[in-house]
Amino acid sequence: MSDDGRAALERAYAHALGFDEARRSRSPNVLAGVEALRAALDGPTPEQGTSAAVVIDNLIRGAEPGVMGTTGGRFFGWVIGASHPAGVAADWLTSLWGQNGGSFYAAPANAVAEQVAARWLLDLLGLPPESSVGFTTGATMANFVCLAAARNKLLREAGWDVEADGLHGAPPLRVCIGDDAHATVFSALRYLGLGYRRVTRVATDAAGRMDASALSDALSGELGPLVVIAQAGQINTGAFDPFDEIAELTHECGGWVHVDGAFGLWARTCPERAALAAGAEKADSWATDGHKWLQTPYDCGYAIVRDAQAHREAMTVGASYLPTTGEDIRDPLHFAPELSRRARGFATWTMLRVLGREGIAAMVGRHCALARRMADRLAAESGIEVLNDVELNQFVVRFGAAAGSPEEGDALTKAVIARTQAAGVCYVGGGSWRERWVMRVSVISWPTTEADVDMSTDSIIAAWREVNERGVG
Which GO molecular-function terms appear in the entry (predicted)? Predict the structure, then answer.
């Protein structure tokens, strides 16, 4: 390695340690706007190279003001894990090792790490041990992989080879999905040529759970090939669909049940919360993330399929220059769509070893308790309403409970979110829930403590009192 290359690595390392040490004290919001970031990072197309160490210094100086504090203890804006240092260390090695994780022969150590980590994941999540696991960029692609396996197998059983003949002229594939499913599931359906408008949307309850009786009505009559998509952890409320009933109804029709469990599936690792996801093991496939509750660095997701053969047939990449492996070797190219991809097995293996069963369970339980603590304190303040039972780590808040109109409540809620973000103590986001604007709170960062929650709650209440007193103007 050149002196310049070593200096670049050393500067990045020193800065990363300083960034980690400041994660508890730095603002969770960005410090620079888009114009400042452009001024720092933009410029003419480079004609000549620059010292790597100098470029790293420039990158740090220009980019860090625009880095969100997602790795700190007071970031509640989205369901984003906090990149545990152990996973980051494994990820550094992954980058330096430069392995292409798509193939066993290109990265044998990663393939074995994936195989071991996959077995551990199935055990921890209480899923069928015969299932196969593909390491993906995240739950969006994990949903894509699982639904591809479902689509191909169901159409093959109907006498159609989608691998060879595509979808033109294929028997129709019916997809039923809860009305409050996550947007990325609809994206996966689009990518697979199944269309997001062609799905049957099933009614949900006040918390976003699929109504089993409504699903039963939707499944009456002639169906043909069928996929039902259930949800473990609704993105606003953390609610879980009734998996036992969904599985029974779907399997009676010969259908495939897929569970989108990007974060909620991890409830199965925690004895106090596992009952929320009871029955999920009866599904045929599952999608979840490592970069949420497992706290791996971005990006990392897992596509889990009970029928390993269906999984392989949907994903396998073949070419004459790719050596074939024996049955005793797990080759990653059979289980995820990208042939060239990051060696995600190392970070996952590391975090599972570092946390273990007890550590993961304790973290999930602690985050759920902290979410309840935060919600209870907010709900005790006059004019603030928590709109869901806090069963997991997610809740939504509405401000101006006595507002004269829903529109006034929307304006008050948006104003409180803006003032909370401007205060810089914590980061919360907003969104629409039941056609009303709400503050969304997600507690899922490993560094978050009671002190972080209490400080953040005080800041939100202060923002509400200020807005309530001065108005939204």
Answer: transaminase activity
